[in-house]
TrEMBL record, chain B:
InterPro entries: Pyridox_Oxase_FMN-dep (IPR024029), Pyridox_Oxase_N (IPR011576), Split_barrel_FMN-bd (IPR012349)
Signal peptide residues on this chain, from the entry's feature table: none
PANTHER family reported for this sequence: FAD-BINDING, PUTATIVE (AFU_ORTHOLOGUE AFUA_6G07600)-RELATED
Every Pyridoxamine 5'-phosphate oxidase N-terminal domain range: 53-165
Record-given protein name: Pyridoxamine 5'-phosphate oxidase N-terminal domain-containing protein
Length: 314, 231
């Protein structure tokens, strides 16, 4: 998997369609300006969108991985937007060209015996592609989808085709997703994939604490609030570049290596997007990200070292 | 010119301006003439969709303020595109970044709310102008919205829009301001159309009244003006 992640594509794509999906949500379709196929992706993957204004944001792909002629994302307009979702809603229009990087796969969606998908609000975007894949495989799955109001919940028309597998919880009419009911009894062979606001994901982690390790996979829009841990200096040996950099406390490994001109790349810089994933050759990383699928790798924008020394594949 | 040397060390004596006598408006009109009706009628009281798009891609603007005695100050502001935010068709929010503690603009604004703004987009010759009244805010959510590079703005200037208009590109052409722009912002603003096509699309009814048959030729007229009538 990590090989797929490191082969990052950067491409110029054209907006093919902007579609109003629900109150405050548009979907945007991108295709290659010369009609070429776009790089393959797995359900749960996301891309980094660079807007003409220079703002960069991450969005989950929510179209069909089989259709390589276009990518689709869903974008919620944030009330106090810092300019990203506002640009997509108010200014991004068919015909415009933008830059994409990716796709990136942090979710690690795999074939399992059965699935329980849980989506809150715009968290439906990665989950939609995963649910479609489960349906295509003919595997048993359920989707619990909550939102403020039915009005604000995107892609309901597409989910109608799977109405026997989907439970909708518009909060104003049906209340919150009854997590206790669904997570009380762990089901072996069933994997839980969830995306949504922090409150929902925290509740899922609490209610599913007794599920088998690795059976619950979450994707966050923003880093989880956590207590600040004390930093110490880290000695980073960049093996391929044959360089050693001392990263002082209070400075990220990513930005210290960037300053030294070493070939690293980052985007969100808060441990959610996965762009800076780096292979660890030696040393014990102190993982501080919210992706939790590092394996032998680490996310150098937030994570540090336990022993004060790391050897990285940089 | 020796008189000018003197005036540098002893101000409030005669200066070069005293060599000339001001003329009145009727004499000005005698020389420059009167604007055609469509120019006179081009001011709007709020930001239209295209003007909002223009401001969202602008990287550079100048902000004029005045103190309570009416003394003016004008300040150029550059930022990544989209730094000035349109909160609604009647309201702009301008960020203030860390560093400049001169605060002439803020001193003025606390005494006199009047502001004049001119917005430019790299690669576009026409400019957008906004006049209105402004005040300073430290609202945390607004400062967060005006973040750049992950850091919130230090202060926000909220502008209540009084009048909005666009101005032709002669000044930009004469100054050869743009050397080409790798971000293709002009393309992003125009969506494949022309400035006047977009402008007419939004204000067709009003402009048809003032321009009549000439409306469809506005782009041609403007291009012709740019080519043949710059000076």
């Amino acid at each position: 998997m990590s090989d797929g992640i490191r082969a990052l594509h950067e491409m110029r794509v054209r907006v093919r369609q902007v579609r109003w999906e629900a109150a405050g949500v548009v979907s945007v379709e991108f295709s290659s300006p010369d009609g070429r196929q776009l790089p393959p992706w797995r359900p749960g993957a996301h891309v980094e969108l660079a807007l003409p204004t220079g703002i960069v944001r991450q969005y989950s792909l929510c179209g069909s991985p089989q259709d390589r002629s276009s990518y689709r994302i869903g974008v919620l307009r944030e009330r106090a937007s810092r300019g990203g979702s506002e640009y997509v809603h108010a200014f991004l229009r068919p015909g415009q060209c933008v830059r994409l990087r990716g796709p990136l796969d942090n979710f690690g969606f795999r074939r399992e015996r059965a699935y329980l998908f849980i989506a809150g609000g715009i968290g439906i975007t990665p989950v939609l592609a995963m649910a479609e894949q489960a349906a295509a495989w003919g595997l048993p799955w359920q989707l619990l989808y909550g939102g403020r109001t039915a009005d604000s919940m995107a892609f309901l028309d597409e989910l109608r085709a799977h109405r026997n597998n989907v439970r909708l919880y518009p909060k104003d009419r049906a209340g919150r997703i009854p997590l206790d009911e669904w997570l009380e009894r762990p089901r072996s062979g069933t994997a839980v994939y969830a995306c949504g606001p922090e409150s929902l994901l925290t509740a899922i982690e609490e209610r599913a604490a007794h599920w088998a390790p690795g059976s619950v996979r979450l994707e966050r829009f923003r880093p989880r609030p956590k207590p600040t841990r004390p930093d110490t200096d880290v000695e980073v040996v960049c093996e391929r570049s044959n360089r050693t950099v001392i990263v002082p406390a209070g400075r990220s490994i990513l930005s210290a290596l960037e300053d030294e001109g070493l070939p690293v790349t980052g985007s969100c810089r808060e441990g959610v997007c996965g762009m800076c994933r780096t292979r660890v050759i030696d040393g014990e990383p102190d993982h501080r990200d919210d992706i939790h699928t590092a394996g032998d790798d680490m996310y150098i924008c937030v994570s540090r070292a336990r022993g004060g020394r790391l050897v990285l594949d940089v | 010119m020796s008189r000018h040397e003197d005036s540098r060390t002893t101000p409030s004596t005669r200066t070069a301006a005293d060599d000339y006598r001001p003329i009145a408006m009727d004499r000005v009109r005698e020389i420059i003439g009167h604007p055609p009706p469509f120019i006179a009628a081009k001011k709007e009281s709020h930001l239209g969709e295209f003007i909002i798009r223009f401001i969202a891609h602008s990287t550079f603007f100048c902000l004029a303020t005045a103190d309570d005695a009416g003394h003016l100050d004008i300040s150029p502001k550059g930022d990544p595109p989209g730094a000035v935010r349109v909160l609604d068709p009647w309201t702009l929010a301008l960020p203030d970044r860390p560093g400049n503690k001169l605060a002439d603009t803020f001193e003025n604004l606390t005494r006199n709310p009047a502001v004049g703004l001119v917005f430019l987009v790299p690669g576009l010759r026409e400019v957008v102008r906004v006049n209105g009244d402004a005040f300073i805010s430290d609202d945390p959510e607004l400062l967060h919205m005006l973040s750049a590079d992950g850091r919130p703005a230090v202060l926000a200037t909220v502008v209540r829009v009084r009048e909005v208009f666009s101005q032709c590109g002669k000044a930009v052409i004469r100054s050869r301001l743009w050397e080409g722009d790798p971000r293709h912002l002009a393309e992003a603003v125009l969506l494949g159309g022309g400035f006047y096509t977009m402008h007419i699309a939004e204000n067709a009814a009003k402009m048809a009244d003032s321009l009549g048959d000439q409306l469809g030729e506005l782009t041609t007229i403007a291009e012709n003006q740019y080519r043949n009538n710059l000076y």
